[in-house]
Amino acid sequence: MKPSGLKAVMTVSLLEIVRRPVYWFGFFLLPLFLFLMLANMMEEGLPQKTPAAMVDKDGSSLSRQMTLNIGGMQMVDLRYESNSFTEARHLMQEGKIYGFFLIPENYQADLMAGRNPVITFYTNMTYYVPGSLLFKTFKSSATYSKAAIVSGALESLGATEDQVKPLLQPVDIQCRGLGNPGLNYGIYLGNSFIPCVLQLMIMLITCFSLGQEIKYGMSRQLLRRADGSIVKAVFGKLLPQTAIWTVVAIFMESWLFKYNAYPMNGSWLWITLSEVMFVAATQGFALFIFCLLPNLRLSLSICALTGILSFSIAAFSFPYESMYPAIGILSWILPVRYNFLIYIDQALNGIDIYYSRVWFVAYIVFMLLPLPLLPRLRRCMARPVYVP
Amino acid sequence: MKVFHYIRNAVSQLFRVYCREFTLVIHDPGLLLFIVFLPFAYPVIYSLIYNPEIVRDVKMVVVDHDRTPLSRELTRRLDATQGAWVTGYAADLGEAKRAMHSHDCYAILEIPEGFQRKVDGGETGNAVMYCEMSLLLRYKAFLMAATDVMLDMGGELQKRKIDDALPMGSSYISDGDLLPIHNVAMGNIESGFDSFIMPAIVVLILHQCIVLVLGMSGGAKREKAYLIGYDPYNAVRSVGLTMAGQTLCYMTLLFLPMIFLLHYVPLIFAFPMESDIVALFAFMLPFFIAAAGVGFCFQAFVWERESVFVLWVVTSVAFLFLSGITWPLYGMSPLWKGLAYCLPSTWGVEGFVRMHTNGATIAQVSDAYTMLWILAAVYMALGYCVQRWIVRPQTLAARRGANVVRAAIEGR
C-alpha cells in the first residue's frame, strides 16, 4: 500500500518542485532576477546629468553667465547649444534632450530697461522623472539668477547689501522628506514593486501547481493520498511552497533593508512578521481564486491580471484617494497593499504598531478567505475536468 | 521554370500554414482570450486607474505657533493651491504627528513663532513642511504648492518692501513681476500621470500579447491532442515558411486589436496624439516581427500551454523598467542599458512615445526604427534555430507518440 497522509502529500509535492524546471524559474530565477534588477537599476537614487540644451538667443554677458550657472548644476548636462526653439524641439523629438532653457533676444538690454523679458524653460513631461528633475533644476537656477539680477539692480539704485538680502526671499518654506530625505527613487520603488513581484509569482505558482493536478487528472490520486481530506490535500500541496516562499520573502527583506540599506526605522520583528504573513495571505488569496475557478488557465489568467494590475491599483505611485472611488476601493482587496502599508508605517516612518494593527488583521482575513470554498474544490478535484 | 515552380510551391506552403493556424486559434479559448480580452479590456482598465491624471488636494495639517495675519495668509494660500488641502490646524506638533500616523494627513506645516515679526523686520520668515515620503507624487504635490506659494508671496512682499525702502523702487525694475519665468511642459502638456505611463503600457501590452499568443500556441503544439481537444499540428516542410505563415496569421488577427490599442485607447482617454497613424503602423511593423521572433524563441521553454503565465507574465515589469520610461536609459548602468537595448519593447516604447506624445516623425525616430529591424532579423534568426532544432523535433516526437497511442487504442 502506498503511504498516505499529510507527510506523503508534502513529499510528493516537494519532489515535483525539485523535478520541474518551470518551478525553478517561478520560485527562484524570475523573482530573484527582478529583485536584483529593480534595486540595482535605481542604485544611484536619482538619475544624474539629464541631457538638456540651451537656446541662448541673446548672447550677452548676462545670458552667458546664466548658461554657466545652469551648466554647473548637478542634475543637468547642457549637451547642446541650439540656435532656435525649433532646433531644440527637434533635438527633443529625437530623444537627445529632455528639456531646454530659452533666453530671448535682447534679454539683457530689455531687463535693464525694465521691459520684463520672459525666460522660458521647456521640459519634456513625456518622461516624468527626467522632466521633473529638469524642471526643478531650471526653476531653481532661474530663481537664483533672478535674485542676482534684482540685487544688482537694487544696489545700483542705492540700496545697501543689508537692505537687499532679506528682500530676495521674504518667505521660505522648507520641504523635508521624512524617512527619505534624498528623494531616493529606489527606496520608494523597491519597497513597493519588489513585494508586488513576489505576490504575482506566489499567486501564479499556487494556481499553477493546483491546476496541474486537475489538468492531468492526478487530483483523484492526490485526494486518495490525503486520505480523502481536502484540507490535508491542499495543505500538503501548499505547505512546502509556503516554506520556500517564506525563505524567499525573508531574503527579500534582508535584500531591501540590509543589503540596499533602505530606511528601516522600526522594529525588525514586525517587518519580518509582515513578510511571513504576506506569503500566507497571498497563498490564501490565490487559493480563493482557484476555488472560485478551478480551471488551470482561467485561474492563472485571473491571477496574472490581478497580479499585474496590482502594480498600479495597489496605489504605489498614484495615491488611491486620487483615483476614481470605484477603482480605488479595489486596492483594498490585494494582499500587497497591506504589505506596502505596513512597510510605510513600520519601516519608513517607524511608528507605533498600534497604527498598523488593521493591516495585520487584513492578512488573517486573506488566509481564512478560501476555507469556506474548500468543499467546492474537493468536488472539482474528485471529478477533474480539463477545460483547455 | 524551376524558379516559378519553387515560388508557387512556397506560396502554397505559406498559405496552408496561414489558414491552418486560424483554425487552431479558433479552437483554443486560451489564445482567444489573449487576442480579445488582453488588448481590448486590459488597457481600458489600466487607463481608468490613472485617468484622474493629476494628484490634487493632498491632505495636510498646519501647526501655527505664530497666529498672525501673515501666517494665516500663508495657510490660506497653500490651501488654495492645486496640490495641497489644509484639513485643519493642530495645537502642537504632537497632535499633528498623531494625525499623520493615523493616515489622516500626509504633511505638516509648522510656522514658527515670530514669523510675521521676522518678515516685517526685514528678515526671512522660515516655515517648515514635513512631508510623508511613501508616495513621491504626494511629495511632489506639496513641493509644487510650497514653491508656488513661496514665490508668489515672496514676490508681493518683495515689491512692497522695495517700495518701502526706495519709494517707487519696484517700478524702476519693472511694472509687474520683477522677472517673469515661464515653464512649458512639452508632449504631456498637463503633466498627467496617465498620459505619461499609458503610451508605454499600450506598447508593452501589444508586445506581451504577441509573445504570449505565440508562447501558448507553441505550448499547445506539444500537448496531447486528446487533452486539448484538437490536433495542434501545423507545419510544412520548410521551417521558415511555417514561421512566416504563423506570423502572418497573428498579424492578421491582431490587426484590429492593434488599431484599438494604438489609436482608440489614446483617443478615448485623451492622451496626447501627435502622430500620423500610417507612420505609426509603419513603425510598428518591425516591432511586431521582432516581438514574434521573441515569441518563437520563447517556445523553447514552453512545455505546456499554461506555463506561459508562470514564465512570461512577470517579464512585463522588467520590460517596463528597462524601456526607460520611468527610469531613463541614460541613467542606467551599462549592464541594464545593454540588456534594454536587446529588447524590442525598449525601442518600441521609445519610438512610439516620441512619435505619439512628442510628435516626432518616423525620420526622427530612425534610431529606434533601425534597431527594431535589426532586432527583428536577430530574433527571427534565433527563432528559426529554436524551431528547427528544438521545437520541431519535439513536436514531431509528440505526434509520433500520439499516433502510436491512437493505434494501440484502436487495436491496430
What does this structure look like?
The complex is a heterodimer of chains A (about 400) and B (about 400). Chain A is an alpha/beta fold and about 400 residues long. Chain A has helices at about 5-20, 20-40, 60-70, 85-95, 105-110, 130-155, 160-170, 185-215, 220-225, 230-260, 270-290, 295-315, 325-330, 335-350, 355-370, 375-380; strands at about 50-55, 75-80, 100-105, 120-125, 170-180. In chain A, strands 2-1-3-4 form a four-stranded mixed β-sheet, with helices on both faces. In chain A, β1 (about 50-55), α3 (about 60-70) and β2 form a beta-alpha-beta unit. The two termini of chain A are about 35 Å apart. With about 400 residues, chain B is α/β, with parallel strands linked by helices. Chain B has two domains: about 1-50 and about 190-410, no CATH class; about 60-175, abc type-2 transporter like domain (abc type-2 transporter like fold), CATH 3.40.1710.10. Chain B contains 17 helices and five strands. Chain B has helices at about 1-25, 30-50, 70-80, 95-100, 115-120, 135-165, 170-175, 195-220, 225-230, 240-255, 255-270, 275-300, 305-310, 315-320, 335-340, 345-355, 365-410, and strands at about 60-65, 85-90, 105-110, 125-130, 180-185. Chain B has a four-stranded mixed β-sheet, sandwiched between helices. In chain B, α2 runs antiparallel to α8. Chain B is elongated, with a radius of gyration of 30 Å. The two termini of chain B are about 45 Å apart. At the A-B interface, α2, α4, β4, α6 and α7 of A face α2, β4, α6, α7 and β5 of B.
The strand count of chain B comes to 5
Structural class of chain B: alpha/beta
Strand content of chain B: 5-15%
Largest interface: A-B, 125 and 124 residues
> How are the strands ordered across the major sheet of chain A?
2-1-3-4
Number of E-state strands of chain A: 5
Residue windows where pLDDT falls under 50 for at least 5 positions of chain B: none
Name the overall outline of chain A.
elongated
Helix content of chain A: 55-70%
Overall pLDDT confidence of chain A: 92
Counting structural domains of chain A, the number is 2
Ranges of chain A where pLDDT stays below 50 over 5 or more residues in a row are none
Main sheet specs of chain B: 4 strands, mixed
N- to C-terminal distance of chain B: 44 Å
**Count of helical stretches of chain B:** 17
Q: How large, in whole angstroms, is the Cα Rg of chain B?
A: 30 Å
Main beta sheet of chain A: 4 strands, mixed
Q: What's the order of the H and E elements of chain A?
A: HHEHEHEHEHHEHHHHHHHHH
Terminal-residue CA separation of chain A = 34 Å
Instruction: State Rg of chain A.
Output: 29 Å
